[in-house]
Structures are given as structure tokens and as C-alpha cells.
Amino acid sequence: MSDTVTAADIDSLMLGIGRRARAAARPLAFADTAAKDKALRLMADAIDASREEILAANARDLERARENGLSGAFLDRLTLNDARIAGISQGIREIAALADPVGETIAAWERPNGLKIERVRTPLGVIGVIYESRPNVTADAGALCLKAGNAVILRGGSDSLHSSRAIHACLVEGLKAAGLPQDAIQLVPVSDRAAVGAMLTGLDGAIDVIVPRGGKSLVGRVQAEARVPVFAHLEGLCHVYVDASADLDMAKKIVVNAKMRRTGVCGSAETLLVDSAAIGTHLIPLLEALTQAGCEIRASAAVLKVHPGFRPATEEDWRTEYLDAIISVAIVDGISGAIDHIARYSSHHTEAVIAEDPAVVERFFNEVDSAILLHNASTQFADGGEFGMGAEIGIATGKMHARGPVGVEQLTSFNYRVHGTGQIRP
Amino acid sequence: MSDTVTAADIDSLMLGIGRRARAAARPLAFADTAAKDKALRLMADAIDASREEILAANARDLERARENGLSGAFLDRLTLNDARIAGISQGIREIAALADPVGETIAAWERPNGLKIERVRTPLGVIGVIYESRPNVTADAGALCLKAGNAVILRGGSDSLHSSRAIHACLVEGLKAAGLPQDAIQLVPVSDRAAVGAMLTGLDGAIDVIVPRGGKSLVGRVQAEARVPVFAHLEGLCHVYVDASADLDMAKKIVVNAKMRRTGVCGSAETLLVDSAAIGTHLIPLLEALTQAGCEIRASAAVLKVHPGFRPATEEDWRTEYLDAIISVAIVDGISGAIDHIARYSSHHTEAVIAEDPAVVERFFNEVDSAILLHNASTQFADGGEFGMGAEIGIATGKMHARGPVGVEQLTSFNYRVHGTGQIRP
């Protein structure tokens, strides 16, 4: 498509994509598990077989990205190589090996009048995925949506369009060879930003849910503008609270891991809260462990009184997802103070309590309102794979439908199936 | 509040209500089951004890409604009497007797690294309920939301404001006496329509979900304008498909019940689809049974060929929720034709198949995409009470979060609680 397309052209193009996705979703909803898994395995085979074409397409994207002066981290995410392509096809094969959630009976009961009621998982319908220039998401998201019986509309970053197209061609090859509708996985073929705007309107009812995959500005725009439900987290402002009852060695090990294992992931800790009753026992060893691990500390006034020399934390620090080797540290008045601090600043993603006192753990679990709560474990476990859910399309912090890791099961809905023997309602 | 409030006044009032609801939701989320049930029982007692005040308030509403020339059906819905007030307090006692969904472990598993993961029900947060002039909804909705640990903002029809206020005062009395925050159940104290508009924006993040209760125009406005999730159905355009394998007596009984038991409910049937292979066996007896029951028939051309004399069905008829003793009747090409017709015209609420052939039933259950599917039973069972779920706040046709009857369980979310023994992520 040429660069002279108008807004009306984009609208018309996107509405057509929406209609085809909706049409494809109908047969897909009751497609055999075997057909879906066959399609997925053939997609993986096609990706392996098309490695050269994919690398060539990726080279075009990389060349243009360099010309546009894009940065090292950006280029790294955009870059494909043999190992990464093998990772993509392996990821699809793992999705093929997951259990099919569609058709699963979630609950079943019988009424006194003999009606037998079942609640059965069904696909959601059509999922829109909007992502940045990471070509692997084309395959991951396409495969996960298909596994759950959903049609998907993929809109990748414009800088990865050639790479995404080459991968998408392999996905379509798998669909065709397995006899599934080709429109089950569509890639938006233009790089205009208007295409994103059109998706956010829901394409005239064609999109049931939107999943943004990317940085805060992308997710923020989608959350602010979408007229359909969104599964996402804007940020992971995760807290670790160390209670006076905590085992100190365990606390040091967990705090360092929660912050430093990978600092750029949403489950990394951004704020350490230390019980005021633990100032004399836990605070300094924790600060030293972090410092030794190479972490910068932004300290509250109370922390600085005990251990001067750190950069003072501002109000802004409590609201900042550093995604870097930096942590803010505050003293709180026991579990109540920790709960209050988290209620005020958390992004409701993941929080951990390190404590041996069961009453403290119970309060933390009952009163902290975040998607994932951990006791005596690192916040870096906030991940669908670590939860045993298989691949995830992301982590959601909303409370509706999907909360926490969003895997194939979370990409489904359900309906009620009532088996009667002639019952009428009196 | 005087009638001269400005839009800015309303916005400020509503934002304050939202903030107070959000603040009340926090302690409510972990309130004891015993405290919530005590509050509910005391609310019921207060309603019984305040019968005279409630009737006096209702008399004021009725007087004004009559002055405004409102119709008989409207006045009937608005009218309270001793029996209806007793029904309201009894309804609240039944909600008190339901199991508390909050804190229930929905799933639990252990990971190879020893992490124990639980998925536990939590409240949704703050629910906005927008309803027409039915004073009983004030009590029903307030009690259901409280049971599930949610704060609620109630915005009833302006014509029932005095009645709703009198009932609301009883609810607050119960909250106070049980030591729960009074702001857990707030009634919007003004009748300005701008208050509804403010709620639909979500009150600056204070409202998690909106439940409209009322006719199509109210629900349509809420669905079109809400910037937060909505649990609702716009209409119940329910179908009954009678297969050639159906037992004729059972089919007659179910079709007449599905249409005629109560014609004004969302689960009443609006369209009868008859298998073309059953024209010689089932069609005329079904038409006669409906006619004898006092039902008007709007017939497709194919039906009229077999049985002339009915009013011909237009395209509009297939899209019409009559809510009256009228049914549209079409001949379809077996189960495939039934599935296609339903996919085209259904509101995805409730559909029934009458058949003895299990392959037909299986296709119907797998391929019809509606919240409730019934086999050999009347569509009028589409009701939370009939499902054994206790009181319902409504029926939802969306696929996100709550689908079908929305009872206390559907008014909850969940989170993950991970129990570790010092695990860090490698």
C-alpha cells in the first residue's frame, strides 16, 4: 500500500480487517484442538524453513531503523538472528503443547428440577494486539490467541513491518495447511498511526479486547483511548515489605533478587519498605546488600537518619518505576504502615512481604489490593511461565476478567449450557 | 440540594461521592463475613421498622409522577405497599444467607520450586448502579454489592428519589450498626441527569464497573457512553429452535412456556425456528399451540405457504424484542440454518434447542455464541435464581468477566497469593 493513503482509506481498510476477523472467529470458536495444534506446529515449521527470508526482511527493517537514528536498545529488540528465530518457533511449539482451554467445563451442578447446568469455556472472539517493534510478538501473540480459539488482529511497530510480515506469512501458511481460516491471524499491512486509532474504537464492534504490548506511553495511550476492554499494566511499581519478624538472610537474598535479577522487567521491585521495629536489626544489612549488588538507593529522611549518605527520596521517587538499578527505601510503621504506603503508591501489579509472623502475612494478603502477592519469595516470579500457566501475552493489573498473568485460559470467556428433559418454568 | 445546581456543582458532588466510595471500599474488602451479614440483617429490620416512612416517601413520589402524567405501568413499578416492602426486606435477608464469595480459594497449585500459588476471590471495588424508578433496586443492588465486599454508588430514577432515599436511610442504619463504613452504600442525592453522565466517566477512576438496570434506552446510553466496564444486556432476543428430532409434545409445552409464561422478561422467546424437515410434523401443531395460548404470530414466507393467514414477518421482526404476546416464526434448514439465523439476529442472551438427536444438541451448544444455551428446557429459566446463584443484579451478554446471570460471585475479582519459603528467581 502506498504512502499516500488517506484517513478514510485506513478506516475502510481496518473495518474490512475487523469484518474478516469476526467472520473467521465463528468457525475458529469450535475448531478441533487437533486442527489448531496442527496449524501451530506447521507455523513453527514454516518459520524454521523461512529463516533466510525472515532474516532478509529483518535486515531491511534494521537498515531503515539505523538510518532513522534509532538507539541501541531499540535496535537490539528489533534484531533477529538464528537463535532468536529458533526461539520463536520453539515458543509456538510450546503453545501447541498446552492444553486447549476451549470446551473445558469450569463448573457443573444440578438443580432440584433436574436441570443440569454447566459452565464451559469459550473463546473471547477477536483480540487486537498493539505492540512495538519486537517481531517475535507477531508469532507469540498470534499463536496464543489461536490456541484459545480467538481471531487476532496484530498491529506491530512500524519499524518492524518487514520482519513482522515475513513471520506473519509463516503463520498464515500454518493456518492454510491445517484448514483453518486464513483471516484468523491478520497483520495490519500499513504503518500509519491512524490504524491504531481505528483499532482502539473497536472496529465497529469487531474487536472484543485489546492487548497492548510495550512501554508506558503505548499502554497509556491505549488505556486512555480504547473504547473496548484492555488487558494491560501501565507499570509495575512493585514493593517489598520486610517485617521485623523476617529472617534477615532470607530478606537480603529476596530483596536483592527482587530488585537486581533483571531491573527492566515489570516484576522488579522499585521500593523497599522496612518495618520501623526492624531499624536496628534489618535496615543496615539490607541497605548494604543492595549497595554491594550495585544498586543505587534513594532514601527517606528516616532511613537517612540511620544511614546518611544516600540520595534523599522525593515524593516522585515513591511513584517511579525505575526499570534500573535504583530502589527507593522507606521506613514504615509495621504492616499497617506498609499497607498504607502500598495503597497510596502501588500500581497494583505485584508486592511481596518478607515475614515469619503469620498474622502479618495474613493482613498483607487480605489488605493489599494487587494482582500478585507473594510471601517470602521474590517479586520477579510475577510471570505466567513461573506460575505454570505456559506462555503469557502480558500481565494485567485491571480487576475485570483477567488479572495477573494473561495466558491462554485468560483469553477465553464462558457460557452456560443447560441440559433439560422438557422442563418449563412454572 | 436546590434545583439551581450547576454542572460544576454536580461534577464536584459526584467526584466527592466517588472518593468516599473508594475510601470505603478499602476496609470493606476485608470486612468479616459476620459484619457484612449483620449489617444486611439490620438493614432488613430497619426497612420493616420504617414501613410507614417509606410508604409516605413513596406517596410523595407517586403524587408527583401522577402530576407529571406518567403511565400505569410506570406507576405500578414505582408503587410500594406493605407486601412489596416485606419482599424487599426478605430479599435482603436472603442475600445475608448466601455464602460470602470473598476469600474463597478458586484454585491452588504448587510449582516444582515449592511455591504454593492460590487464586483467591476479592471484591471488585466500587460498583455504580444506574436504574430507573424502581425503589426496590435501591435495596437489592445495595445489598448484593455489599455482600461481595464492594462499595456501591446508587443512582435511581428521579421519579423515585423520595422512596429511594427512605430505603437508603435504612441501609445506612444497618451499615452503622454493624460498624461498617456508611459510605459503602451511597445514593446520589440529586435528580439531575448530569449525575449519570459523571458516573459514566468513572468519576476519576473511582468506579470499577457500571451496572445499568432498566429499559433499552437506559442500557443503550450507558453502553454507548460509559468509559468503564459495563455489565448489562441491551435486550434478550431469544430463539427456540425445534429440530425434526424433537418430541412434539415437549416442544409445544416448551415453546408456549418460553414465549407466554411472562412476555415482558428478557428470557422470553421472540423467535421460533422450525427445522424444514419438521414442516409436515411439528410446524402446524406448534403454530396452533401458540395461537391457542393467545400469541400473535409473524410468519416467514415459507411458514405462510404451509399455514396462510398470519401477518408476514418483515426483516425488522427478526430483530425485534417484542416483550409482548407476539412471536416471529421461520423455517430453517436444520441445525445449520438455525445456527446461521441465530448468529445473524441474536442478542447473545439465551437460546434453546428442542431435539432428541444428540449430534444436533452438540452442534447447537458448540456453535451458538450466547450467554445461556438450553437443551429441552424453556428460555424462561434464564435467571440467576433459577440457576441457584441467589439474587442477581442482572444478566450480562458481554463476554468479559461476567456473562449470564450476575450474582454475588460475578461481582468479585481475584488475586494470586504466592506462599514461598525464601525462593528467588534464578
From TrEMBL, chains A, B:
Spell out the subcellular localization from the entry: Cytoplasm
Q: What Gene Ontology cellular component terms go with this record?
A: cytoplasm
Q: What class of enzyme is it?
A: oxidoreductase
Which keywords does UniProt give here?
A: Amino-acid biosynthesis, Cytoplasm, NADP, Oxidoreductase, Proline biosynthesis
Q: Which Gene3D superfamilies is this protein grouped with?
A: Aldehyde Dehydrogenase, Chain A, domain 1, Aldehyde Dehydrogenase, Chain A, domain 2
Q: Ranges for the Aldehyde dehydrogenase domain?
A: 19-281
Q: Name one Pfam family in it.
A: Aldedh
- Which reaction(s) does its UniProt entry say it catalyses? L-glutamate 5-semialdehyde + phosphate + NADP(+) = L-glutamyl 5-phosphate + NADPH + H(+)
The EC code for this enzyme is: 1.2.1.41
Q: Which GO terms describe its biological process?
A: L-proline biosynthetic process
Which pathway does it take part in? Amino-acid biosynthesis; L-proline biosynthesis; L-glutamate 5-semialdehyde from L-glutamate: step 2/2
- SUPFAM superfamilies per the UniProt record, alphabetical: ALDH-like (SSF53720)
Task: Read off the HAMAP family from this record.
Answer: ProA
| Entry-linked PANTHER family | DELTA-1-PYRROLINE-5-CARBOXYLATE SYNTHASE (PTHR11063:SF8), GLUTAMATE SEMIALDEHYDE DEHYDROGENASE (PTHR11063)
Function of the protein: Catalyzes the NADPH-dependent reduction of L-glutamate 5-phosphate into L-glutamate 5-semialdehyde and phosphate. The product spontaneously undergoes cyclization to form 1-pyrroline-5-carboxylate.
What protein family is recorded?
A: Belongs to the gamma-glutamyl phosphate reductase family.
The name on file for this protein is Gamma-glutamyl phosphate reductase
Query: Which source organism?
Result: Ectorhizobium quercum
What does the record give as the organism's lineage? Bacteria, Pseudomonadati, Pseudomonadota, Alphaproteobacteria, Hyphomicrobiales
Designated gene of the protein: proA
